[in-house]
Design goal:
Largest interface: A-B, 29 and 33 residues
Helix content of chain A: under 10%
Number of helices of chain B: 0
Radius of gyration of chain A: 13 Å
Order of helices and strands of chain B: EEEEEEEEEEE
Radius of gyration of chain B: 14 Å
Structural class of chain B: mainly beta
Oligomer: heterodimer
Distance between the termini of chain B: 36 Å
Number of strands of chain A: 11
Number of strands of chain B: 11
Shape of chain B: globular
Helix content of chain B: under 10%
Strand content of chain A: over 45%
Largest sheet of chain B: 7 strands, mixed
Structural class of chain A: mainly beta
Shape of chain A: globular
Chain lengths: ~110, ~120
């Protein structure tokens, strides 16, 4: 059974810092890795999608990497801002139109 | 604007009643999904549908039922057989496909169901 683990569960940093969120997965037959943001009481917003053939994807201040051999993905947030405060979820795609397997998330607080 | 709508945002029911959650998308996506989110847990897959008139059970399908009669719609019924129905329910969709490629999933705003 696929398992996705996110470390740390919670993180609080001052504004302006660069930070890294970690995601590890057990199934090497990964098709893609998707990072999401969730604000309290809201749905998920897709941030980045990395296909299994890719090593990284970038969008603005966000950079996500994928290392299939080690079963890890990282989300790098540059120059953090208070508006980045949210829960960040990573999810592994198993292929086709199968559902995603999610980690429990990292709750991020950026202190002004 | 293209997107996924879920209604209602909040839903309250008495124990023993069935309740149906709505999910509609205008993204022309073939695949649709239902997930459940509980505090402190990751999202868990309930049901998914790769194409109209077809759907498969996810990891926690017991006590739930779905239908997929139209491409745009994928309603979820929470039956009285579901032991712990109180949760946040999220619907998602993707372009889909059966060729083995995996596609980005897009999520709706969610429905918070409370059963007392």
């Amino acid at each position: 059974k696929q398992e996705v683990t996110q470390i740390p569960a919670a993180l609080s940093v001052p504004e302006g810092e660069n930070l890294v969120l970690n995601c590890s997965f057990t199934d090497s037959a990964i098709y893609n890795l998707q990072w999401f943001r969730q604000d309290p009481g809201k749905g998920l917003t897709s941030l980045l999608l990395i296909q299994s053939s890719q090593r990284e994807q970038t969008s603005g201040r966000l950079n996500a990497s994928l290392d299939k051999s080690s079963g890890r993905s990282t989300l790098y947030i540059a120059a953090s801002q208070p508006g980045d405060s949210a829960t960040y979820l990573c999810a592994q795609g198993g292929g086709g139109a199968d559902g995603l397997t999610f980690g429990k998330g990292t709750h991020l607080i950026i202190q002004p | 604007d293209g997107g996924i709508t879920q209604s209602p945002k909040y839903l309250f029911r008495k124990e023993g009643q069935n309740v149906t959650l709505s999910c509609e998308q205008n993204l022309n996506h073939d695949a649709m999904y239902w997930y459940r989110q509980d505090p402190g847990q990751g999202l868990r897959l309930i049901y998914y549908s790769q194409i109209v008139n077809d759907f498969q059970k996810g990891d926690i399908a017991e006590g739930y039922s779905v239908s997929r009669e139209k491409k745009e719609s994928f309603p979820l019924t929470v039956t009285s057989a579901q032991k712990n129905p109180t949760a946040f329910y999220l619907c998602a969709s993707s372009i889909g496909g059966l060729a083995g490629d995996a596609y980005e999933q897009y999520f709706g705003p969610g429905t918070r169901l409370t059963v007392t």
